[in-house]
Amino acid sequence: xxDVKYTIAAGDDDDDEHYTRFxxxxxxxxxxxxxxxxxxxAVIALVIHAVLRSEDVRLSVNNxxxxxxxxxxxxxxxxxxxxPTSSSINKVExxxxxxxxxxxxxxxDPGDDLPIGVASGQSEHAPTILxxxxxxxxxxxxxxxxxxxxxxxxxxxxxxxxxTNLRVILIAxxxxxxxxxxxxxxxxxxxxxxxPHGVIGELELGNFTVQPQTTITMQKRLSANASYIWDNYPGxxxxxxxxxxxxxxxxxxxxxxxxxxxxxxxxxxxxxxxMDDEWIYATDQVDCTAS
Length: 291
Ligand SMILES: *[C@@H]1O[C@H](CO)[C@@H](O)[C@H](O)[C@H]1NC(C)=O
Ligand SMILES: *[C@@H]1O[C@H](CO)[C@@H](O)[C@H](O)[C@H]1NC(C)=O
Ligand SMILES: *[C@@H]1O[C@H](CO)[C@@H](O)[C@H](O)[C@H]1NC(C)=O
What we know:
Bound molecules: 2-acetamido-2-deoxy-beta-D-glucopyranose
Order of helices and strands: HHHEEEHHHEEEEEHEEHE
Keywords: Membrane, Transmembrane, Transmembrane helix
Helix content: 25-40%
Number of helices: 8
Distance between the termini: 48 Å
Structural class: alpha+beta
Strand order of the largest sheet: 1-5-2-10-11
């Protein structure tokens, strides 16, 4: 402003020569005044924008990935164990009633958590089964060329997991940075993106606060519906879900009353996979959009 006064005063003092000598200066002055005005308008617009949007919290799913401790279980069984349908059991019982206890014990799970081909399970069962197999004429599923010393191969079948725990990692940002943001009664649901679009699991994230210009990371486990996973993704090592976050979001606009709204955010595509496979399927953070 002071240079404006100075040039006006100079114009009053000097003759016409001044205007012919400094026409450019006048142009620069106008241009600068225009720029300052634009800048002021831009700043006001930004402030209004920040106040209006101050309730915005940005949520995202870390790596776009949710790790599972397991997605299905395994049954390690003897090679001849896939036979005991009800009809074959009845047939064997007619032939030799003493065999049925052995079949009953071998068709029970020989240890859910046994890794593939555990030797102890086989050596326990082998002596009790082999003599019976030898006595029955059909060989009980063993190849004919196997003599009494031939051991049945362990067979691994997949089955429903007893329980599936998922580790959900959510990131919340408050980029506006003018006020803190409270999220309360926050719930997280995982929905299958494919038909039948069921709920795979839910968890309560409760209450949390994101201070201005900070990012917080929250990790919580949820117990997923193992039946649903088994029914729809048997034996799969990963599948896609949509993550839905519901919260009451409270912001504290400057000079105004606090403002609480019910917000629903959806984040997709998010991969559910085995914890150990995270490095394979991890992506960038998957941002959630308010709906
Ligand atoms: C979470 O916040 C809500 C509302 O702000 C409150 O009613 C509730 O008691 C809080 N829950 C916990 C566990 O602090
Ligand atoms: C949050 O949940 C608590 C009970 O868990 C309830 O008393 C409170 O009213 C809820 N708050 C909101 C904002 O829904
Ligand atoms: C789990 O999913 C099955 C469908 O696969 C459904 O029938 C059952 O109700 C679900 N259980 C829970 C607790 O949601």
